[in-house]
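U., I forgot to send this yesterday:
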Amino acid sequence: MLGGTLEGNGDAMVNRPGKIEQGGLGTLTFLANLRYEQYAYTTHSTAVLIPREFQPAQPIAAEAVIRVDDVYNSLRILMEKFGAAVQDAKGVSKQAFVSNSVTLGDAVTVGTFAVLEDGVSVGDGTIIHPQVFLGKNVSVGKNCTVYPGVKIYHDCVIGDNCILHSNVVIGSDGFGFVPQPDGSFLKLPQLGNVVVESDVEIGANTTIDRATMGSTFIRKGVKLDNLIMVAHNVELGQNTVVAAQAGIAGSTKIGQGCMIGGQAGFVGHIEIADGTKVQAQSGVAASVKEPGTALYGSPALPYNDYLRSYAIFKKLPELFRKINKLISRNEE
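Result:
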């Protein structure tokens, strides 16, 4: 399955994954970060994945060792196999509401108290967990997993092989209001939708607003953590990853292959070049034109400039005292 090389007992049986420092009979664990090497010599796991080139300082405690080229990717393959056993629900629950105009593909699962309104379509092999709401004309592709409590508003589109975790909201109204002479605000109708392309994963409680006009786009391969806010008419480029609690204001376009840290924030109507890296808690207030730029701080600065500035900032109290002493001497 992994194209690895076996050392030890080839008949050893494993039935679940486990941490290398905890293990237990029947667990399969892994060593990818050498900071955990000490546990390889004491683990109670039955089998352990290690890098092909790794040379242990003493015998590894597991019954079986599997050398592989890429430990994390091999672990991913195995975790998919273990995870498949968890998805045991099949068919359409009698306690789900499925409109007569809904189109379901082959081997679709619809859980208890799920609601699928008029015009919804669901692709082959997709699992709709209990208490999911799919509004009118929503399209969900093949082999998706939509976890309990997800709400997808009308006319939104989800591609193939997507995972939406609990309480994700797709297609809520964008934050659009028109100020009035008396100081009040009137709502600007939000008439667009959200398009989530294939191979996207969206973490729990993340919200993605529908476009005012046109579409909010989450491109192929994007990975979003929990508790992220994506505003109306935003575009997230292919294979971009965003960590928890980040916020992206309206009409901002983020390029391909970007990496955005937790609690980072973006103002609206800017463009971020491909491959940009934004450190956690940074605030991006202007467009980034140079691909591969790394940013840090609020407002965000080039990464190395921020580190140099911060090194000086930490010394400001000491520098202030020295300057005061020099001033006092000159005054004397």
